Amino acid sequence: MTKLYCGVDFHKRTSTYCIKDKEGKTLEVSRVDSDRLIAALETRKGLLIGVEASGGTNHLVELLKARGHEVKIINPTKFQAIGLGGKKTDERDAIALSEALRLSFIPEVYHKNLCARQRKSLIVGREMYVRSRVNMMNHVRGTLREYGFPMAVGKEAFLSEVDAALMEFPEPKLAFLLTDLVKRVREFMDQEKVIEAILIDIAKEDPMMKLLQTAPGIGIMTAFTFAAVIDDHTRFKNGKVLASYLGLVPRENSSGDKRRMGSITRSGSEILRRYFIHGARATLMHAKKAKVPPKDRNKIWAMKLEAKVGMNKATVALAHRMCRIAFAIVRDGKPYNEKLKHPLLRSEQENDSKKDVA
């Protein structure tokens, strides 16, 4: 069967697709309602379909794959061919996508399975509650301070003092608004606990998450997010590639014999990168405050680095190392070993040497 190449410019209401043959001849360009896109392509056989990554793309890809099509998700930020010539239309986008598929010149995005996407949705849902709660607390705290009612730092101190401060607040109408916000803060906290209980139950049944939590600085939230974001670890060659995927490597702008390194790229999942950095900072601070010097060689390395370059850079460097160690734990299926200086490098070097011998 002759393979045909179909570029789809997918949107919420309408979508445009372009079908080309292997010689580059355009067979069809059509605009349809998005809910009729599956039916429009169902009669075609041997399609290689390319869809830009956007909201609802994963569900569309699953439906297309279920009907026997080969589908690739394209990274729109790296696909620079769209809109060339200063005329960007849905039809031109679809034509460019189909042509890139025909030439095998596409930056593809990994299609995560349904379980990983559901877990990621749980994490993001909890994040929404946390951010909403923090924003409301900060608003109430700032308003009370504006009228002479300063609040102590911390969530627990805020909740223990805010009711008494509102009782003494001189403006009844504004006090009513602030009281309602505090009520919603407590409701959000209850919802956070419900979601966290769900996450803990799932983590208890997942062997990979149990192994990840043996490493310092990796708790339930980091382990759960790691499993949800990474999904299949075999899609990464090694831990270094994974750290680059999460944006924990320096930004580079080099030319000729001059190599310029900047701050970290911050690409990939912001939530997982933030959890690794928070875990690294907590690990480093705990190691510094401990009465007994740590025996963990990674903690010792981080403390020496902190003395040279400062807390922030050492924290990011330790987060980078923790990310690569997490990859090694998942890949090897073994718990963390504090006696090893850098277990991931050792195993990676062994694998590379075996490949060279072969």
Q: Topology, please?
A:
Elements: E1 4-9, E2 14-20, E3 26-33, H1 37-42, E4 47-52, H2 57-66, E5 70-74, H3 90-102, E6 108-109, H4 114-146, H5 155-167, H6 172-205, H7 207-212, H8 220-230, H9 239-245, E7 250-252, E8 261-264, H10 270-289, H11 297-309, H12 311-332, H13 343-357
Parallel strand pairs: 1-4, 4-5
Antiparallel strand pairs: 1-2, 2-3, 5-6, 7-8
Helix pairs in contact: 4-6, 4-8, 5-6, 6-8, 8-10, 9-12, 10-11, 10-12, 11-12
Describe the structure.
By secondary structure, this protein is α/β, with parallel strands linked by helices. Helix content is 57%, strand content 11%. It is built from 13 helices and eight strands. Strands 3-2-1-4-5-6 form a six-stranded mixed β-sheet. It starts with a strand and ends with a helix. The model is unreliable at 352-358 (pLDDT under 50).
Can you tag this structure with a few keywords?
two-stranded antiparallel ribbon; 57% helix; globular; alpha/beta; disordered C terminus; 6-stranded mixed β-sheet; 358 residues; Nucleotidyltransferase, domain 5
